[in-house]
Each structure stands twice: as structure tokens, then as C-alpha cells.
Design brief:
It contains 16 helices and 8 strands. The protein has a two-stranded antiparallel ribbon with strand order 1-2. α8 runs antiparallel to α11. The protein is mainly α and about 450 residues long. The longest helix is centred in the middle third of the chain and has 36 residues. The chain has one domain. Helices cover about 70% and strands about 10% of the residues.
């Protein structure tokens, strides 16, 4: 393999590994803030115990997320220097704002929150976790604005052989970016909610701390239901944006080869890119693709043959990623609806408890499939319509990238094993005795 393919594999590996931790950080920070706010408002100590227990898992996850996120940004200099030189005036400014405005705030107050249980008043302590939650989500917003610019570049001019910022307002207000933001952050909230629901179900199935985990389940399932509805509605809106700005991606994620009016939706197909067709097509629904893409049953949808072969994205990965993501989105909506309706008797329903235990990894898979669709579906462009991925790679040797890819793979495998072991051990133990914690210093009950 050449340096281009190896660099793509390295960045993909780093991104997908990093994104195993980001959604849980985003969602848990909000859930922790809600729990602490409930404690401040009601004085119910159970909400405080919930915040402390789930907070330990949050901090383990946060630490690994920070470590793996930093290495991503270094790759823009080491592996993608031509990309950085060409669009750094725009992309670099967005990353700089994310670091100085959000990341530093988040990192500072997460320490204050972790060490401040016996040093701050309950109200002040709750404010710190709200600041962490706000900063975490603002950080994600800036990253997603930067990615949205790569998907649909706006507010720039080509000057002196590079892209330069022309309208900062256009970059941060474009609808494509805010559709991505709502879609991605909603998915993160669903993931965090299902994580809490699954761990709570595991303990409830063993009759451990029933009141505690039943309360945790009720808080999480409410958030899961709300954002599952938001995700389904917003997903339809975002698909229409993709149809408008990235028609080749739409054709790939639907494996549509010929430009068609009243284009049908197939529930399942087997793409055959070599022969520009589908080997099999199952579950034809006439006109549905046209309606979903353009909200009109007679609308024309461009097929992949309308684009030069060199400008077409791969088909199989976007196609199957999209279907897995949608199927899991429907599952999350139905499961959270059932869980919400049974939330007050969830401990008496062993079948439902098993369902939520086994559902823990499913939102992770949905989020990773979403990123697969977004990034692979954009190919062969690194910045859509402006710069191809092949033009963005650094002038380095394949052996150099191969060595760093092997090192990253080994390191991330080790970090992943350690992180998930620590998370599992913490989740398995259950909540600590709060009376013992309140008599200890913050250092003695620190979150390792």
C-alpha cells in the first residue's frame, strides 16, 4: 500500500477509536448535570449518589477521549500537511477556537468537579458539572462545524493558490453544519442513555441496589426517548441536505446507479460496482427515495452513472453503513418507548432487562456507522468539490506511515483494553457507601 492509503487507514483507525469515547462523554456530562440539579432541587441523596457513581465512569471515559483526540490533530501536520497548507486558514481557525474556548474550559472544570465534592456547596458543585457539559458540547459543535465545512465548503475564496476565509459567519451558520450538529449530538445522548440503561438493567437483573438503578434507568430512558424522536425527525432533514449538496453520496448510500424519476427505495440490495448495477434488490417501495430526498414522489434522483468514475464514492461501505444506522435508530426509538412505558416496573421484567443489557453496544455501532457514511461517502474529496484526498497527503514514504500505523494500532489496542476494563469494573461494583465517602477527603475518594 502507498502512503495515501496507509495515511487514510491511520486517520480512520484513530478517528473511530476516538469516537468510541466522545459520545459517552457528551451524553454522560448532561445526565450528570441533570442528576446533580435534581439533588440540589430536591435534597434527595440518591441523586447525589447517582452523580458520584456515574461520574467515576465519566472521568475514565473522558481521560481516554482526551488522549486519543490530541493525536488526531497532530496528523494534520504529519500525514496531511498539503491539506493543512491549502485550507488551514479556515480549518485551523475552527480547531483553534475549539481548543481555546471549549477544551480548556472543559478540562479545568472537570477537575474542579471531580475534586470539589467536599469543598464546594451543592449548588456551586452542580454549576461546575453544567460548565463541563456545556463546554464538552460546545467543543463538539466547533469540531462538527469544521467537518461540515469539509462536507459543504462555504465562506471561502481561492487566493494565492489556497483557500482563504472570506465569511466566518457563513461557515458557522450554514444549515448543513447545524444539521450535522443536531444529528451527531442526539446520537451521543442516545448512546449515553442506553449505556446507563444497560448497566442499570444488569444490576436490576441481580437485584443490586434496586432503588438506585431504577432511578438511574428512569432518568436515562426519558433522555433516550426524547432524543430518539429528535434523531429520527432530524435524520430525514439531514438526508434532504445530503441530496441537495452531495448527490453522489446519496446515490452511493442508496446504491442507485441510473438517474431516475420517482426513484424507488429498496429495503435491501447487493451493490455490484464493477458492473454498475445491483446483484439483488429486495423490498421495492415505488417513489419513496424521491420523496425522502426531495419530499416529492416524482422528483428526479441522480444515479452514480451521472458522475465520472473518478468522482464517485465507494458504494458498499456507505450503503451498508446507512442501513445499519437507520435500523439501529428505529430500534433505539422502539426500545426506549417500551422502556419508558415500563420504567416504573422495569425490575420485574427480566426479558426487557436482558434486552437493554445486550443493547449497550448498539448505539456505539450506530454512531460509528454514521461516521463511516459521512467520511467514506464524501470520497474521493477531502474537501467536497475543492480538494481530493489524493492531493492532501504529506510527501512522506509508505514505510514511515506503516510504522506509525502499527504503533497507533498497538497503542490504541492497549488503551482500549485498559479503558473498557476500568469502565466495566467500575460499572460492575455499583455505588459506594455514601456515608463513608462523606467522611473522607476528596483525595481519598478520588476518581481513578
Amino acid at each position: 500500500m502507498d502512503a495515501l492509503m496507509l495515511s487514510r487507514l491511520q486517520f480512520a483507525a484513530a478517528t473511530f477509536f476516538h469516537f468510541l469515547f466522545v459520545p459517552l462523554t457528551l451524553g454522560l456530562s448532561v445526565l450528570l448535570a441533570l442528576m446533580e440539579t435534581a439533588f440540589v432541587r430536591t435534597g434527595n441523596e440518591e441523586y447525589k449518589r447517582m452523580a458520584r457513581f456515574w461520574g467515576k465512569i465519566f472521568l475514565i471515559n473522558f481521560a481516554i477521549g482526551v488522549v486519543t483526540g490530541i493525536t488526531l490533530e497532530f496528523q494534520f501536520g504529519t500525514n496531511w500537511s498539503r491539506y493543512s497548507a491549502y485550507v488551514g486558514d479556515i480549518f485551523g481557525s475552527l480547531l483553534a477556537i475549539e481548543a481555546t474556548v471549549a477544551f480548556f474550559l472543559e478540562s479545568t472544570f472537570v477537575a474542579v468537579w471531580a475534586l470539589g465534592w467536599n469543598r464546594l456547596s451543592p449548588k456551586a458543585h452542580a454549576i461546575t458539572i453544567w460548565l463541563v457539559a456545556i463546554a464538552s458540547n460546545v467543543s463538539a459543535i466547533w469540531i462538527l462545524i469544521a467537518n461540515a465545512w469539509m462536507q459543504n465548503p462555504v465562506g471561502y475564496v481561492i487566493r494565492h493558490g489556497r483557500a482563504e476565509l472570506y465569511s466566518f459567519t457563513a461557515v458557522i451558520t450554514q444549515p448543513f453544519a447545524w444539521n450535522m450538529i443536531v444529528h451527531t449530538i442526539s446520537g451521543a445522548y442516545i448512546l449515553a442513555a442506553f449505556f446507563i440503561m444497560g448497566v442499570s438493567a444488569w444490576h436490576l437483573s441481580r437485584k443490586n441496589n434496586v432503588s438506585f438503578f431504577k432511578s438511574s434507568f428512569r432518568v436515562a430512558v426519558t433522555l433516550a426517548l426524547v432524543f430518539s424522536v429528535v434523531e429520527m425527525v432530524q435524520g430525514d432533514i439531514h438526508a434532504a441536505e445530503v441530496a441537495k449538496y452531495q448527490p453522489a453520496k446519496l446515490a452511493a448510500m442508496e446504491s442507485l446507479w441510473d438517474t431516475t424519476k420517482s426513484a424507488p427505495e429498496y429495503l435491501f440490495a447487493i451493490p455490484d460496482p464493477a458492473h454498475e448495477r445491483n446483484r439483488a434488490e429486495i423490498g421495492k417501495i415505488p417513489g419513496l427515495l424521491s420523496f425522502l430526498a426531495y419530499h416529492h414522489f416524482d422528483a428526479e434522483v441522480k444515479g452514480l452513472k451521472a458522475f465520472p468514475r473518478a468522482d464517485r464514492p465507494p458504494v458498499a461501505l456507505p450503503y451498508f453503513s446507512f442501513r445499519i444506522m437507520v435500523a439501529l435508530g428505529v430500534f433505539s426509538l422502539l426500545a426506549s418507548l417500551v422502556g419508558f412505558l415500563r420504567r416504573n416496573s422495569i425490575e420485574t421484567r427480566p426479558g426487557l432487562l436482558k434486552l437493554f443489557i445486550f443493547a449497550i453496544p448498539l448505539p456505539y455501532l450506530a454512531c460509528e456507522c454514521g461516521w463511516m457514511l459521512a467520511e467514506v461517502g464524501r470520497q474521493p474529496w477531502v474537501v467536497y468539490g475543492i480538494m481530493k484526498t489524493s492531493q492532501a497527503v504529506s510527501p512522506i514514504g509508505a514505510s514511515q506511515v506503516g510504522l506509525s500505523l502499527a504503533a497507533f494500532t498497538a497503542l490504541y489496542t492497549f488503551l482500549g483494553a485498559v479503558a473498557f476494563h476500568l469502565i466495566w469494573e467500575q460499572a460492575r461494583k455499583g455505588p459506594s457507601d455514601e456515608s463513608a465517602l462523606d467522611g473522607s477527603t476528596d483525595e481519598e475518594v478520588g476518581y481513578a
